Amino acid sequence: MEYVTIARLRRPQGRRGELIAELFTDFPERFRDLKEVWLLDREGARREAVLEGFWFHKGGVVLKFAGVDDMGAAGTLAGCELQVPLAGRMPLTGEARYWSELKGCRVVEGGRELGTVRHLDPTVGTPLLVVDTPQGELLVPFASEICRRIDTAARLIEVELPEGLLDLNR
Q: pTM of the prediction?
């Protein structure tokens, strides 16, 4: 089964075993329906956990897990990623894409393959596709004016790069 990370546990919050987490989802309302989740630790081990409660706090979320009842127990979970099965992702509308769907897509311009998407860099402003090419890293603005066609099923992104962008990246 494949999983997707929706938050990262940062540190204990309070003395009752709660943890503050950084959100990695655009759908924080999903916590209302979450009970069974998975925790991925820094060594790559995944285990199931039961979410007892949550509340939003200062741009993040405070989480309470069953069996985690004090600061010491909560501290052992700091750094874990909170995951749900990939099939449990929230549905997107329109032409929206999950970033994870873009990873590994071939980037092509005018029939010429430029490289493969390594990841998406959510910089200030327009996010950038980080593309591995034979010449090195290529940064492509993830904008509809440049990324003309995205076919995640075919693992393909057709681009129309602005003049000079290839030179700028070298």
A: 0.68
